[in-house]
Design a protein that fits this description.
By secondary structure, the protein is α+β, with helices and mostly antiparallel strands. Strands 1-2-3-4-5-6-8-7 form an 8-stranded mixed beta sheet, with helices on both faces. It is built from 4 helices and 8 strands, in the order ββααβββαβαββ.
Length: 190
């Protein structure tokens, strides 16, 4: 997967549009350090994900091995959204290799905060769904999303995900607050 396009983004702290070259591509082992740094950053930017201020808790070499393992799998992928060669978003689909459940892909999607509400989530999700359709293996995509994350729920619903359940106390904030989490899924047709 490689998708290039020009993207004009409003910089909220400035009153002008910046032109970015957007590249969507599969992660490669040489991306490991940048990917770890990106995930560590977004873990500090928002409490909407399972990441926290400790980030991904992986070393560069562990991430490189993870990426290489995914590259050899027919039911897993990590897609990067690069703006001017800098990671701005990630979509990861992981799946088991056991025959009975290898058709189920778990989605993790995160966008760097400064690029929220510019369509990157939609672009990455669309690419991930298209990849899943052509994988020949995946027949179901699923994810969890905090009930309070209305923007993400809207995005997933727009792409055909439906709420299948509610996990009470599915997430926890260090301030001692438990959060409910929706379980959402989407079937992939042949």
């Amino acid at each position: 997967i490689l998708r290039l396009m020009a993207l004009g983004l409003n910089n909220s702290s400035r009153s002008f549009m910046m032109e970015y070259e957007l590249c969507i591509r599969e992660a490669e082992a040489h991306d490991a350090a940048a990917l770890v740094a990106f995930l560590d950053l977004v873990g500090q930017e928002t409490d909407f994900t399972s990441l926290d201020e400790n980030g991904i808790l992986m070393t560069e070499s562990e991430m490189a091995l993870f990426i290489e393992k995914q590259a050899t799998s027919d039911n897993q992928i990590t897609l990067l959204a690069l703006l001017n060669d800098e990671i701005a978003g990630v979509l990861n689909i992981t799946a088991e290799q056991r025959i009975r459940i290898r058709h189920i892909g778990d989605i993790f999607l995160v966008i760097q905060r400064k690029f929220w509400n510019h369509g990157l989530g939609s672009i990455l999700l669309e690419e991930g769904i298209e990849w899943a359709k052509t994988s020949g293996v995946l027949r179901r995509l699923q994810l969890s999303v905090q009930k309070r994350n209305e923007a993400a729920i809207h995005l997933y619903s727009k792409f055909g995900f439906v709420t299948e359940g509610l996990q009470e106390r599915g997430a926890y904030l260090k301030e001692g607050i438990f959060l409910d989490v929706y379980l959402m899924g989407r079937l992939i047709d042949k």
